[in-house]
Amino acid sequence: MPTVTPRKLKRWLVRAAIAVGAVALVGSVALTWLWHDRASLDAIDWPRYPQIAPYPGAVRVTWLGVATLLFDDGETQILIDGFFSRPSLTDLVFGRRVDSDTATINYVLDAYRIRRLAAIIPVHSHFDHAMDIGAIANRTDAVILGSATTANIARGAGVPEDQIVVVDDRSEYSFGQFTVTMIHSAHAPVGWGGSVPYAGTIDEPLTTPAPVSAWREGRSYSIVIAHPQGTTLVQGSAGYLEGALDGVQADVVMLDVQMLEGLGRKYAERYWQAVVTTTGADHVLLIHFDDLTQPFGKIMLLPRAIENLVDVAGWLEEFRDSWDTDTRLHLPEFGKQIVLYPQAKAQPET
Ligand SMILES: [Zn+2]
Fold first, then answer.
1. Rounded to the nearest whole angstrom, what is the distance from the C-alpha of residue 332 to the centroid of ligand 1?
2. CA 234, 133, 124, 311: dihedral to nearest 10 degrees?
């Protein structure tokens, strides 16, 4: 048996340290490259949403990243989701405790003239949808509409009870000329083995700061926002329940596509049929396609290694060509208000 002298041992240890260092270096270079390898939105050459100048009383919508959407008819504003604070990748990976960012929320409320907000309605209660709902409600008179889990997020933020409404499935809620209906849906099964990440409910008021895992899904909804000028369906997670939208008609669908590529083409086609074909929408606007770890206002696609939206866009074109040839596909532009129902001006209500 060879003798291990202290000198030999030292040499082996140095070699081992160099090998571990080299592997770590190569690994981190590879990870950095994978993280930065992203498709450009310009690679998807879909037509812009029909552009007309906003006219008094027109229903407008502004996409504010992920699935946050501001609806406004000039009298009443409705906010779907409330996610402006945007925890970083490091916050997510290390489970650091996060909270609403006061400066960002004040900036958004001012910059987007959110002054007539009647309701804040998260599609479900994960942090990337519901993190800031309480902080927004506390700066406005808006009610928060959602599941019992959503209500506990609001309570944890100190929102008064008279600004919290736990919804009944398929009941109608009126705000000015808007009528909102929440339909029980499913979250996209994007966790390990087809599970839903951070599933479950929040049964006590949620105190913050808390790690993002504390924002549990609660119940996921399809949200129908009807107005005399037209109807929009917001599908804020790429999940569906078979038959849940039977009988629902929509002019526009806001279609969540996050992680659709990983769920596969077959799944994506069934999702399209359940949400777009069933409702007969003329226009589909994609939402939840941007990297949610970027700061508010910075729109960037996810790394190709996680999801390549260009491939997903190709699938959606094929589904449209197979099932819904009159439907047009669009990408929203961040922070840019669009008139949702341009045809309403041509044929005013009598
Ligand atoms: Zn979610």
1. 20
2. 60
The whole-number pLDDT of residue 1 equals 58
Q: Is the pTM of this model over 0.90?
A: yes
The burial class, CB within 10 Å (0-12 / 13-18 / 19+), for 233 is: buried
Q: What is the pLDDT of residue 9?
A: 87
CA of 348 to the centre of ligand 1 (A): 38
- Tell me what the mean pLDDT of segment 183-208 comes to: 96
Distance CA(270)–CA(95), nearest Å, equals 34
Contact 332, 49 (CB under 8 A): yes
Can you give 293-324 as a three-state secondary structure string?
A: CCCCCCCCECECCCCCHHHHHHHHHHHHHHHC
Rounded to the nearest angstrom, the distance between the alpha carbon of 187 and the centre of ligand 1 is: 7
Give 278's contacts (C-beta < 8 A, 6+ positions apart): 245, 246, 248
Q: Cβ contacts of residue 182 below 8 Å, gap of 6+?
A: 121, 145, 146, 167, 169, 170, 171, 173, 221, 222, 223, 224
Residue 121: which of 248, 219, 230 has the closest Cα? 219
- CA of residue 272 to ligand 1 center, whole Å: 18
d(CA 94, CA 35): 17
d(CA 329, CA 315) in angstroms, rounded, equals 12
Q: Give 95 Cα–ligand 1 centroid separation in angstroms.
A: 17
Beta bridge partners of 71: 61, 78
Q: What 8-state DSSP symbol labels residue 38?
A: B
Closest CA to 150 of 174, 137, 162, 133: 133
Expressed in angstroms and rounded, the spacing between residue 124 Cα and the centre of ligand 1 is 7
Expressed in angstroms, the distance from the first to the final Cα of the chain is 99
Q: At what angle do helices 265-272 and 309-323 cross, to 10 degrees?
A: 50
Residue 9's Cα: distance from chain center in Å? 55
